[in-house]
## 1
Amino acid sequence: MEGGKRHWEENRLRREVGRAASDQVDARASTGADGVPDSRHAHTTEREAFHCSVWRSAIGCARTAARRSYIWLSGQSSPHRLSFYPALPSSRLVKLEGQINQESSWNSSTRMDFDALVRFVQEHFTDGLALVIGSGLSAAEGIPGMPALATHLSSNAGVLTGPDATLWTRIKTVLDVEGLEAALLNHPPSNTLESWIAKSTCQLLIPKEREVISAVLRGERSLRLTTFLARVLKPVSGLPILTPNYDRLIEVACEMAGFHVDTTAVGHYAGAFDHIRSYMGSCRGIKVRGRTTVLDHFPRAIVLKPHGSFDWYQSGNEARRCSLDVDAERLMITPGINKYRAGYNAPFDKHRDLANDYIKRAGRLLVVGYGFNDDHLQTHLEKRIQDGTPTLILNQAISPRVERLAEQSPRCVCLSKPDARAGVAVVTKGGRLERQGPDLWDLGVLAEELLT
């Protein structure tokens, strides 16, 4: 059935060429008694010869398209509409399900059209893009997430004594039901308990981070973000990446993709935080554009971490960035209500302010593995999305909060994993669909399938 569809266009073009050739024969027959073509038919013969050559070229294009196996979307009203996107294996094509109303900005039809979704995704990654990356992307690479951290804390809580042990017991009673973030919000930890949580977090996550980065440097694997960055436009002004994650997979992924990483710190071993000097670190010269002289930068990513990082340390009265694993107090904001107090200290405050400023100025947003449960970012982020900033959200599991945001925002598309099968579930304003095939909610798969 599909084989016939793929050759339908080629057969139609052949019929047109046949008609054009037949007309040429008739034109040649319209000659005078002396064998000279009748002048009344001369212009017709030339025009049809031109048409014949055009159709031959068109047939060549059709054959090329057939060889490249461009896909036919099921359910289209016209069999001659070819979709000019790389083909998926025919075994993975299914009939699309779902309806969408006229309010959706990425599809003008009343039918949920996967072709339109592909165009939305491919046109989304242009200048003005800002990325928000949550723990979901790190979890996909092998870094334990919040549930694993909660289990780790509970397993090692035996070292706690006195008031901290009592407080942890209260936290533990709601931990399994509410999750770690909510439990620490409802039962704020003491300074000593918070310090223990930070150290325990490092004990769990840093060895896993080391395993992943070691495999990357040995050439045994590639990070999803690296795959994505290699296929998108590198903005002249830099690509802002905002994250609450402590790990450094984003920094590694950016450098593997050829980006200079601007962390707002100057140096790698005892780097002071100075976002102006850090900005200049990616400058490779000057350029003249028209009558204006501007700085010329290497491709760069501005990585902002409002919750801190494994390589941020307290050094006396100031913060320093050190890429080495040293015996000093790390600067990390743990989950819970205390993070709002700590967030006003340097360098957390500067990273939060810069992150919110990039969100306000973004022309479009890509949100990956982020659960929208952090007021440091989501207050401005949700407002921009609700106001109509084009947004693509990629989450393996979609929470009710994210689902409502996608349904109520005029230019937001959320891709997530369907229940119990491979493929993608799409939620947007006025409609939804599920489609078997590639896991397009996965950043690496999305890049390989749609951004080649």
## 2
Amino acid sequence: MNKQTIMAENAPAAVGPYVHAVKVGNLVFASGQLGLDPVTNTLPEGVEAQAEQSLKNIGAVLKAAGCSYEDVVKTTIFLADINDFAAINAIYSKYFTGSDTPARSCVQAGAIPKGGLFEMEVIAVTKD
């Protein structure tokens, strides 16, 4: 098995002992990304702002792994409050559009690291 670890320069540092993503063959398994600002390492206020930043962070991880949002086949979203479901859909739809959107799960988490309101992980398939 050829396993490659991915650490993206333009994504915030991991908050635990893990890498941003692992690439095995043409599959990319990205760790959950909080909405942390990669420069200040702080969370913005509000679930929409955190979702937006999380998706930007995921974009940086995907780019470091040689793929993009279009290559994502599965997403998992963790919300501190499931009542934010509609609000985050508007943000999510800016990154995943059309009929070729990935499969998705969305769950309310008991707690999200650093007091976050939103976290998302993805699985992608590279073109190579």
## 3
Amino acid sequence: MDLHSLMAAIDRSQAMIEFDLEGNILRANTNFLDCVGYRLDEVQGRHHRMFCTPEHASSVEYATFWEKLGKGAFDEGQYKRLGKNGREIWLQATYNPVFDEQGNPFKVVKFATDVTQQRKTNAEYEGKVAAIDRSFAEHHRVRPERPRAQRQRKLPQGAGLSSG
């Protein structure tokens, strides 16, 4: 398989975006743009932080993330990102440094799959399980108690007791 065919296959099935080592967007494919709701001219040349919450974009973790990529280490996982108009998106993705002929990283390619709906479904399921657990615990904690007189028989004073 030639490189062009391989890239075409990936481009058809994956959301893909390319960055320089500082995180500036070089290009993005249609799958990625559809996922985030932007056109290429709205993202090209802008920084990756446009897809992050301001808190995350200003964090030490985020700076370390780009530092690591710049040194040639890849990163993978599920990432919370923001689409157009602040819409929350979850991506299962890999950030892959691309190396030149001398072995130096010169850009980063991200391959991603939108897992937003799966996360929502899982959260709904987990919410239902938690509600059942709470209901079960409450049911067994607050059982109606029988009146004390029914639980304990009153014995006449001294009945059944021996002194010797």
